[in-house]
Amino acid sequence: MASIPSDHNARPAAPHENPVVASHFRSKAEQEDAGKMGMWLFLTTEVLLFGGFFCAYAVFRMLYPETFEGASAKFLDWRIGAINTVVLLLSSFTVAMSIRNAQLNQQWWLRINLIITIACAIFFLVTKLWLEYWPKIVEGKLPGTFFTYSGAMTDHDQIFLSIYWTATATHGLHVLIGVFLLTWLLVRAWKLHFGPKTYLALENVGLYWHVVDLIWIFLFPLLYLV
Amino acid sequence: MSAAHDHHDHHPSYLAPKETLGKTIMSWVYTIDHKKIGVMYLCAVLFAFFLGGVLALGVRTHLWSPAETIVQIDPSTGEEREVQKERFFRDVTITRTVMRENEAGEKVRAQEERTFTSNNIYNRVFTLHGAVMVFLFIIPSVPAALGNFFLPLMIGAKDVAFPRLNLLSWYVYVFGSLMTLGALLGGGVETGWTFYTPYSTSTEFGQTTLVALAVFVLGFSSIFTGLNFIVTVHKMRAPGMGWFDMPLFVWAIYATSIIQVLATPVLGITVLLLAIERMFNIGIFDPAKGGDPILFQHFFWFYSHPAVYIMILPGFGIISEMITTHARKPIFGYRFVAFSSIAIAAISFLVWAHHMFTAMGELAAIIFSGLTMLVAIPTAIKVFAWVATLYKGSIALNTPMLYVLSFLFLFTIGGLTGPPLAVLSTDLHLHDTYFVVAHFHYVMMGGTVIAFIGGLHHWWPKMFGRMYNETFAKLGCLLVFVGFNLTFFTQFFLGSNGMPRRYATYVEEFQTLHQLSTIGSYILAIGLFVHLGVFVMSLLNGKKAVENPWGSLTMEWDTESPPIEHNFLHEPVATHGPYDYDQPIVPPRTKPGEWPLPDMPEGDDGANTKRGMF
């Protein structure tokens, strides 16, 4: 706890100068260690969840190589995927920088970096919905019962699209959750919640965001390139 | 309320009611106290156990006699006709309103009749018995109920690392359970609890999608609990408590949590894909669309085989606690018992494919057969260590100890009937027979449930501050033991003679054994109701329990019975091991001022509470 300022004219302490320790923890260090470890464990479960998609992709690529070899070029535009990859990488950099800003108490840079991160995330989602999902919906390049595309060349085009839609939609949902989390961070940054002593939430959301990017880094070549 | 504010004279127990009834209810609804959440979990899983048990009794009652065709003479026409003799589950015809298109292409309401035959209903009942028992009862039973209550107490922590996540896990569990109950009422599921494709992707009438989504939701609850426990064990142990000073129950729960965190996401994606498959026909698992039904089995068992160890490992932990306390001896081979839990968790991820030996190549089957037999090594280490602990111990033959002995007997049978199923040549004959049913009931019920009931008796005085009636509890234990063996030992004979599992009928030669099994299931049920009565009577007018009625050395007994809201009056410090029964003097841990308190942050009076990280 910060001591009560003796000088009555001293400015009141900002929230970040006065870190809070929950009552069941013995110390701030214990609390932060626990928070970070919990996040890593959660991210492990995320990787395993997406592991299911990658496993299904591998199995069906093995079963129907002829479908999968042609499908990337036929159904997807690698340029849109590449732009989105660059955008996500940039956002990973800015979210990492925001933690550095908190450590150095650069409150304005912290906010700017968070805003850039959110903008990148929204750009990703808009590109995905507007340039990728929407044309596919129009042309009937959809999974399962909704598959009405007339230009199908092999029997199993539909399975490629099923994997594409389920995997990218699940990833997109994670990006959307990331937007909400980053916005929550931005609000807290405006209230001066982060500083050299208190940046755990930034670090944890940052970790989450890196994993969301990482999953895309694997989805992009598998679906768009090879 | 923080420790600094109550002035050492008033420490209400966690069960103490608040000023008004409304506030008391709210203190449970919004609680982030691991003890209250543990008690809420206990109530919920016991209800699920009751529900699953009733379904099991339905299955056993239906199997009292095989299906028979009898010749009846129609009284009005005098014609002879063949009809099915009525059994426990009768044919039921229901009418429901559906939207249909008429000739003009308009949508109109139409009445549709649908008949559930007796066999349909049997399929639904045994499926729900399995699903309820696995997902609603046995997976959360020990970790979420007893683990939640005792893990923090045993390592001297005030709470789990993320108390709100803990509460959330309970609500998520309740939500998932309600979805399952809704499916039960809305038509049921007939796929078996394993949801094997392509049947589960094509069966139309029923609530398969809803149950698949319920399992997805329940998985979150399981992950939250596991994640919480791992962090709690790593970061919140009392000063002086190293990894090898932890009680073995904590080791077991820790190993369980690792499996929960690493395996459950795979189940999540599996049932999610199954639900999407059913809703949109995406063709991942449906062979008619080029999908791969074996892929489903690989995904499903990649979770569900480790899940078997989620179920049994906490039971191992309970046995280690009870056996040392009630035989008053240090555990034989502490590190071996501790590491065997971790070894079982690790091996559990390598054996899933033994559920589909015939669906793979010969080489893969041989490899998985060998890996499966590896499980026997750490498990046998545990059993030998427990027996060695009993040797020359000062054994108190009370209810917890009787349950330990039951466990050793039943679990050993369950364990030793495993290798015949792991060996390819014998498994070809025993696969999908009652032998398998008997084997996993001996492990799951004879192992986990027996340990769970024993653990409930062991920790009951601490949880609720009341003793139970030892005589009636022993009677219950006896009935459970006899009933259990009668129910399931007969099934080993049935299975090895070729009775396939999941069938609604059987050939007449099997009737005697089936009837013995059914009688056994009733005795078992009576025994369980005796226990329920013992617990209810204990809550109503049981003798007040002292702090440490068994003279146990683990930390949870160093606080009042029931524990105060903040668990301990003073920060506990580990000054001796959990099983130092052979040490001459064991001082109490929490006498004020006797032991050095740990480093507290400068100026922290505990007042800055409530606002955590999340």
Total DSSP helices of chain A:
6
Q: Quaternary status of these chains?
A: heterodimer
Structural category of chain B is mainly alpha
Cα shape of chain A: elongated
Radius of gyration of chain B, in angstroms, nearest whole number: 26 Å
What number of domains of chain A? 1
CATH classification class of the domain at 50-60 and 117-127 and 158-541 in chain B = Mainly Alpha
Give the CATH architecture of the domain at 50-60 and 117-127 and 158-541 in chain B.
Answer: Up-down Bundle
Q: What is the number of beta strands of chain A?
A: 0
Annotated CATH homologous superfamily of chain A: Cytochrome c oxidase, subunit III, four-helix bundle
Named CATH architecture of chain A: Up-down Bundle
CATH class of chain A: Mainly Alpha
**DSSP strand (E) fraction of chain A?**
under 5%
Based on helices, strands and strand pairing, what is the structural class of chain A? mainly alpha
Q: How does this model look, in words?
A:
- The complex is a heterodimer of chains A (226) and B (614).
- With 226 residues, chain A is an all-alpha fold.
- Chain A has a single domain, classed as Four Helix Bundle (Hemerythrin (Met), subunit A).
- In chain A, 73% of the residues lie in helices and 0% in strands.
- In chain A, helix 1 packs across helix 2, helix 1 runs parallel beside helix 6 and helix 3 runs antiparallel to helix 6.
- Chain A starts with 27 loop residues before the first helix and ends with a helix.
- The N terminus of chain A is likely disordered.
- Chain B has 614 residues and is mainly alpha-helical.
- In chain B, the strands form two sheets. In chain B, strands 1-2 form a two-stranded antiparallel sheet. In chain B, strands 3-4 form a two-stranded antiparallel ribbon.
- In chain B, strand 3 and strand 4 form a beta hairpin.
- In chain B, helix 3 packs parallel to helix 6.
- The longest helix of chain B is centred in the first third of the chain and has 37 residues.
- Chain B is globular and about 85 Å long.
- The N terminus and C terminus of chain B are likely disordered.
- The chains are: A mainly alpha (226), B mainly alpha (614).
